[in-house]
Design goal:
This protein has 106 residues and is mainly α. It has helices at residues 27-41, 43-51, 71-89, 93-99; strands at residues 2-3, 15-16. A two-stranded antiparallel sheet has the order 1-2. The longest helix has 19 residues, at 71-89. The chain is globular, with a radius of gyration of 16 Å. It starts with a strand and ends in a 7-residue tail after the last helix.
């Protein structure tokens, strides 16, 4: 692990380390490690995993552009992409190929 400050990063996470990758075995152990990984960064990111993300829309039902989002909407948008990045890095390509078109885990 490398300290973020030693890398010249300010106001960022204390440590930078890789998300646990699922190798196809011991799913429940991996799941617990991944939950802990998310929570070590920010509980809002874990909440995004649990509750999902819905892109904000305007009165006509069109998606709001990022530049037009309020602070809360922008934070949710950023947390969604942080969570997605972690999840994509925590599963192998074979698993991704199986789940990429699924909207729900069940």
């Amino acid at each position: 692990m490398a300290a973020a400050n030693s890398l010249g990063l300010k106001n960022h996470y204390s440590f930078i380390y890789k998300a646990p990758t699922w190798n196809g075995d011991n799913f429940y152990f991996w799941r617990d490690k991944l939950e802990s990984y998310f929570l070590s960064f920010d509980e809002d990111i874990w909440e995004m995993v649990l509750n999902g993300y819905t892109h904000p829309t305007n009165e006509e039902g069109s998606k709001i552009a990022r530049k037009d989002m309020n602070k809360l909407q922008l934070k949710d948008f950023q947390n969604h992409h942080k969570a997605r990045t972690i999840l994509l890095n925590a599963i192998p390509l074979e698993v991704y190929e199986k789940i990429k078109k699924k909207e729900f885990a069940y």
